[in-house]
Write a structure and sequence with these properties.
The structure holds two protein chains of two kinds.
Chain A lengths: L1 H16 L5 E7 L6 E6 L2 H4 L2 E2 L12 H4 L15 E5 L1 H12 L8 E6 L7 H6 L6 E7 L2 E6 L4 E5 L6 H4 L11 E3 L13 H7 L3 H13 L6 H5 L24 H14 L9 H5 L7 H15 L29
Parallel strand pairs in A: 1-4, 4-5, 5-9
Antiparallel strand pairs in A: 1-2, 1-3, 6-7, 7-8
Helix pairs in contact in A: 8-10
Chain B lengths: L2 E5 L3 H9 L3 E8 L2 E6 L25 E8 L2 E4 L7 E6 L1 H13 L8 H8 L1 E6 L25 E5 L3 E6 L2 H10 L3 E2 L2 H17 L9 H6 L5 H6 L7 H5 L6 E8 L2 E8 L20 H20 L9 H5 L6 H14 L1
Parallel strand pairs in B: 2-6, 6-7, 7-8
Antiparallel strand pairs in B: 1-9, 1-10, 2-3, 4-5, 4-12, 8-9, 11-12
Helix pairs in contact in B: 1-4
The chains are: A alpha/beta, B alpha+beta.
């Protein structure tokens, strides 16, 4: 890990020194354990701040489109910056999606790929220290030693604390990169990424309804899920549109349900299960369940994984004669 | 004022007595950590927590509130009598935050009746912090692990017992009506002082910019754009914040009738300042990040003579991209001093 981090810092310093890039987007240490901050670095000196470990959770691709937008107030010509970015598997897939949707330019981007071993779910980790908070987390090989605010310590295998998406990730290496650092990541075998969906569907209609109500009732409409999602780049979200006004702005149950269903459907054929929405939610809502159900349907009906390459059309963007047409009804 | 010692074994009896003719709201364990909720069974209250995921401000300033109801004929004000409420076991930073909200909703003599109806029927029992959380920095912004500001009673956890100190008449009344506990011994009072001293020791000192002229002078500084680059523009920081108090008022209508509703809103959203004309005076993230910082550290000190940050650290904990207001403040302070 730290070897990769050293290589990363050296390489980014080179790219910035040589003026090949104006900016590089990566992660830096935050002042909280098991949490990194997104960081744009501009100089070789700043590159020393970059880190790479199993707390680099957020999907940096969500920050990219704004970088390529001409700032308001600038008249006339504007040259967008040349931006480098550290990409683990999911981030690279999100960028593939953004490029294909013309939200970021391919030629303005320099992707530095890195194999990912999966990120730690802070909330899962914090459950291990009871009512205390984690004060410090130290990585020791494949384990992480957690020191709590009450002074107690606990050591646990990092793999036991993986975020749900990371535990079943099949694309831990970048699917698109201009260069890579470190060795390819070990592949995950045999994990069923739709297990939570199957468990949910095994329940009765009433149980599912109750669970759905309980889940969305927690929502405070902060839109952290939406803003953390690289796919949510609409200039105006349906949730905030006023003409027509699709849903209210309140925390009424019907508004909450519509927001979450609407957002899930808008992800159809685009979600790469990066887990950014789950990690971003301050209320611990299981946002992944709906997305995974739709991912499962897309896979079953139209086949294939989304956002794996720039060339291949994604499942909902292509038409084949043997597409499932079961949803059509006779007139 | 009354100072009681209450054995932990008597806590449920105390809470039951308090809840007899009042609504009891307190911390309960939740998958996202700890949350404030109505307590039906006093044994479910969980006082062993660092801080809640969301602040308890919703008790006095709910996220969604109906102001009036209307139909085609006209409208009527909707202001049902607020229930007499005891907000038990909030951290001193959150109690202090309520005292700041009071200033907003009574600003320059303009009283917000909806807020004040609830506020006047709310008794706050703050729980001193023996063990600060990982993101806490209350002492840097004028708070304290045993701060009494905004509280009617200050409770201190002393292991197998609690010290309950009445701060206001209202608090004393609450302790008397509960009728549980005994007069605190000098040893218990000293133990509480020691606990606060120990907690205070453990809190970090964060540089806070307090030079208001200096803050005004860096309005156009490039640091805002740089700090805003990693802001996603979500409202996690503001909705979790105990002092953020901005709201929107909308008409939610269907089938010819509806409600005028007040809901939390946030300066982090572009829509917050978007004009009908399409013009937005805060067009980009830099202006919005600057607004959040300056509102707390410049405009509120100007208007209310108080920094509107109580150092609870929730914005630091919740930011999906790891933005840390303490780092921004340190940088702002440095820029102010060198500008």
């Amino acid at each position: 890990m730290s070897q990769i981090q050293d290589q990363l810092r050296r390489r980014v310093a080179e790219l910035l020194d040589a003026k090949t890039l104006d900016l590089f987007l990566g992660y830096e240490r935050s002042d909280l354990p098991l949490k990194t901050a997104a960081r744009f670095v501009r100089t070789a000196e700043e590159a020393e701040r970059l880190v790479w470990d199993r707390t680099c959770t957020s999907n940096l691709a969500a920050l990219l489109p704004a970088v390529f937008k001409k700032p308001e107030g600038i008249r006339g010509e504007w040259t967008p910056p040349r931006v480098g970015i550290l990409v683990k598997g999911c981030v690279s897939r999100s960028i593939v999606g953004l490029i294909k949707a013309h939200q970021v330019p391919r030629d303005g981007l320099h992707l530095v790929g890195v194999g990912c071993e999966g990120m730690i779910d802070r909330h899962r980790a914090s459950q291990l220290v009871g009512s205390a908070e984690i004060a410090e987390a130290m990585f020791e090989g494949d384990s992480v030693r957690l020191r709590a605010t009450d002074g107690t310590e606990k050591t646990v295998a990092a793999n036991e604390l993986l975020a749900a998406s990371c535990a079943v990730c099949r694309f831990r290496d970048a699917v698109l990169a201009d260069e890579t650092i470190g060795d390819p990541a070990a592949t995950v075998e045999g994990a069923d990424r739709y297990t939570p969906v199957a468990a949910f569907e095994a329940q009765s209609a009433q149980e599912r309804w109750d669970a759905f109500v309980a889940e969305v009732s927690r929502c405070v409409r902060c839109y952290a899920c939406r803003e953390a999602c690289p796919n949510c780049y609409c200039t105006e979200c349906f949730a905030e549109e006023t003409e027509p006004k699709w849903i209210g702005v309140t925390t009424e149950l019907s508004d909450l349900m519509l927001f979450h269903l609407g957002r899930a459907y808008h992800q159809a054929g685009r979600c790469v299960d990066c887990g950014a929405c789950v990690a971003a939610c301050p209320q611990g809502i299981d946002l992944r369940l709906l997305n995974q159900k739709i991912n499962q349907d897309v896979e079953a009906l139209f086949g294939g994984d989304v956002s794996l390459s720039l060339e291949e059309l994604d499942p909902l963007c292509r038409f084949t004669m043997d597409d499932d047409q079961g949803f059509m009804t006779e007139p | 004022m009354l100072v009681l010692t209450l054995a932990k074994t008597d806590l449920a009896t105390f809470l039951s007595a308090v809840a007899e003719d009042r609504r009891l709201v307190g911390p309960v364990s939740d998958r996202a950590g700890t949350t404030f909720d109505e307590i039906a069974d006093p044994t479910t209250i969980c006082l062993d927590y660092r801080n809640s995921g969301l602040s308890p401000k919703g008790v006095v300033f709910p996220q969604r509130e109906t102001l009036l109801v209307f139909d085609a004929e006209g409208g009527t004000e909707h202001r049902p009598e607020a229930p007499e409420t005891v907000l038990f076991g909030v951290r001193p930073c959150d109690a202090r935050a309520v005292s700041l909200l009071d200033k907003v909703f009574t600003w320059e003599g303009t009283e917000d009746p909806y807020y004040l109806d609830r506020r006047r029927r709310t008794t706050i029992v703050a729980l001193a912090c023996n063990e600060p959380g990982a993101a806490c920095f209350c002492t840097s912004v004028g708070g304290d692990p045993a701060d009494e500001t905004g509280a009617d009673v200050l409770a201190v956890d002393l292991g197998d017992k609690m010290l309950l100190r009445a701060i206001t008449e209202r608090g004393e009344e609450l302790l008397k009506t509960a009728g549980v506990g005994s007069d605190a011994s000098e040893a218990d009072i000293q133990a509480a002082v020691k606990a606060a001293d120990a907690a205070r020791e453990r809190l970090p000192k964060t540089p806070i910019p307090t030079d208001l002229d200096g803050l005004r002078a860096i309005f156009e500084d490039e640091l805002w754009a740089q700090e805003a680059m990693t802001c996603l523009g979500c409202g996690a920081c503001t909705y979790a914040c105990p002092t953020c108090h901005c709201f929107d008022i909308t008409d939610e209508a269907k089938h010819g009738a509806g409600e005028r509703v007040r809901s939390w809103d946030t300066c982090a959203f572009p829509l917050f300042t978007l004009h009908g004309s399409g013009h937005n005076p805060r067009p980009a993230k830099d202006a919005r990040v600057r607004q959040r910082v300056l509102h707390k550290f410049l405009y509120c000190p100007e208007n209310f003579d108080d920094i509107f940050c109580v150092g609870c650290g929730r914005c630091v904990t919740h930011c999906p991209t790891g933005i840390d207001i303490r780092r921004i403040l340190a940088r702002v302070k440095q820029r102010v001093s060198t500008a």
